[in-house]
Structures
1.
Amino acid sequence: MSEVSQTTLNNAPSRYIEKFDLHTGAVIDEEIKPEQLLVHAHRDFHFMDFEARRIMSRIVRTTGDREKARDKVRRMRQWGYRMTDRLARVIGKQKAEKVAKVLLGLKHHDYHYRFKSLPVTGAEAEKRIQQLRQDTQAQFAKTIVDGKPALRVLLTGGTGFIGQEIIWQAAHDAAVVEMVILIRPKDVIDRQTGQVVRTISPAERGAELLHRLWLETPEQQAKFRFVAGDIEQPMLGIAPDELSRLERTLTHVVHCAASVSFDDTYEATYQSNVTGTLNALAFSVHLQNVPDSPFVEHIGIETSYIHGRQMREPSQEDAMVFPSNYYNNYYELTKAMASIETETCMLMQGLRVLQLCPAIVIGKLRTGDNRGDTKVVNAPINMFGRIHETQADSHSSMAQRSIAGLMARLACVFPADPGAQLNLITVDWVADGILAALHHPEAVGERIHLAADKRLTPKAMGRIFKEELGLSIHLVEPTLFRTLLLPVFVGALNLFRQSKQANALGKLATLFGGYAEWDQPIHEVGKDLEVLKMQGPRPDMEYAFRMLCRHNLYIQHFGQVRDLNEISRREKLWKGFIDELEQRTGRQVGDISAEEFHKEAAAHLEFVE
Ligand SMILES: NC(=O)c1ccc[n+]([C@@H]2O[C@H](COP(=O)([O-])OP(=O)(O)OC[C@H]3O[C@@H](n4cnc5c(N)ncnc54)[C@H](OP(=O)(O)O)[C@@H]3O)[C@@H](O)[C@H]2O)c1
């Protein structure tokens, strides 16, 4: 078998998922294509579908009752089916179904998908997990030196948004005596020619990283070591002599590296997220099986969106069912597959493993610090902020400002249901959870959500945006936006030769619109406090979002300051400014009004023009 067909075979969704008949429950033996598992494949196929979504959204907005909305649409569909039956008696079944499909958009959904059962379930699975918990606690006890744990952790994804916060917190956790960070070389590409100008070695990347994290004392430097590797390679691509050193020393593996891209192909995302996870798991199994190994446990970083668009029931921490409304993108789908691989490895190979599942992660609660991250929620904040700045820029010409004004009106329409509940969480809470996991071996076998208990609505985000940045965002029902307004807006922006903005708007709406619709999943929380013993309350996301807006304005200049060294320099001054302001006013910085805060920033932050 060729290498290509081997890959195609191995990453087939049918490895994890089966299609089944909704009436009989029998498995339908058909190829499952990855795109069939995404929400886009199942909607906007007919005007009536579009109308049904609009009605549901309106009911939820006016009554706040999600069940009522579903019931109304269910009754509409039942009415449609009754009509089809009557029609069938007159013109024949097949013809009637065709008419119903064309006129009413009624498709007979007599199948759905489900995850295949794990090889071990129920009491036997519970028995194995209990045993693993006991073993983990026994292993953890061996790490105690002079009454304190001495942990040696391998971290993947250390250069990423969450990884950097893990390093920062580990630097201040005395129990972590060594952190080994797996890092790959990085090519610097000339933007104009597309050629590789130079390659930054893992050692250089590591040194830069510690510098940017302000970890420069000899003790801090001594705690961190960088090893070359790649999660897509067997044994994480670690050199043999390094591997034998790690076999004798490592107590924990934290697997955090992944591809967090919402628009990559299935194959590429699978390679990073599932093959990468399989390699990390195999690496940990290897460590665990070395005779007299100090290895305690493997901690896998997943996402609470492994539950996809599960809207019927709140998504539970210890159960994963195939989402009733599919997945938003291949990122979510492959992270769910990675979670199944992790669970299987635990049950079948006896790996001591814990899974942590953060919601959508934003900057730190108190400062909004995100170390230059521009992904996910930062993208719309930065885009709106930039548009606002062009509009307000007194140096731009009249023509530029008129175009900017028009663009602002077009682009500040955002697809979101005002009442949708967004599942956000701050990066410091997530890293806090990961560090807590190192201290709680009894958590092995669990899957724990790291999410907020009070979710943020687009309405609240719009209000904060207006207060902080003075820009009004008009929220438009996502289905209407996606199917009608977006093509018009993109066309108009292109007409004004604003193709960059047109692309950005199109991309934003397609990639993130799905996270602001009314039917967002609710991720149950509880084990963060109960099992990991994290100190509540969970972060207040309105506060965190306000600080993120301020941060992205002053530190990132809405994505225009991209030099990570400059961002690091600014974040250091920013923290000092916030500390001083809170001390002087006796108030928390997020409780200081936007107007007062901006005045203070203008007076005291040296990099504010
Ligand atoms: N950000 C969120 O909102 C969010 C939410 C829930 C869960 N998560 C999960 O949290 C984890 C970290 O997310 P993040 O936001 O920190 O991601 P990120 O900023 O995109 O960082 C990804 C990290 O993975 C590394 N990486 C990717 N492919 C690699 C490979 N082949 N070999 C070695 N390293 C590789 C990257 O290294 P390079 O620097 O070399 O590229 C980088 O350090 C992921 O597992 C993600 O699924 C994130």
2.
Amino acid sequence: MAKEIKVQIILGSTRQGRYGEKVFKWINDLASKRKDFKVESIDLKDWNIPFLNDPMPPSMGKYSDTIVQKWAKKIEEADAYLIVTPEYNHGYSAVLKNALDVIYKEWTNKPITFVSYGGYVGGSRAVEQLRQVAVELQMAPIREAVFIPMIWQAFDENGKLKGEEDYNKRAESMLNQLIWWAKALKEARSKTK
Ligand SMILES: Cc1cc2nc3c(=O)[nH]c(=O)nc-3n(C[C@H](O)[C@H](O)[C@H](O)COP(=O)(O)O)c2cc1C
């Protein structure tokens, strides 16, 4: 029974010198310690997904590009998603939007949550927008998320998240909720296939 749920943690920032890597490492290390699900780390920088170019909408399920086909297979494997997102101009990154848009059914009927970071509001505006996108993809965005403000001051010189104990508590609670939904929706999907 253990490890039956698979969570993909996706890093949605790809620029040189990104702070996202520190956040990604923190949440991956924390989530990987859990015994009630399996974690897979996905860095969008490793994927180079081309901009959406198919003549038919991805919701039709036909992806002509080979990288997009591989991406669809990878995303299909998971039961839940945790996206690590920066905030760019009150939204999220273009590379993340494209990764979400190029496929469709592989995301549907699965829960999603977010760890965001940025300036004073910790990337929360990016998360609000991402929740709307998730609904359109027929996903279940959950309530709990983690927001890390003032990202350039959030980690010490050893790469440790300042105030880690509090953040860990919030992250564990978020993961509990994510796994609750992952199990419930996995069961529901198995009955409707
Ligand atoms: C193009 C751009 C726009 C930004 N806009 C915002 C913003 O609207 N709100 C905010 O809190 N931070 C904003 N920031 C600051 C980022 O949140 C911060 O630079 C963060 O480190 C970005 O994530 P990354 O380092 O993983 O790319 C912006 C940064 C960039 C590069």
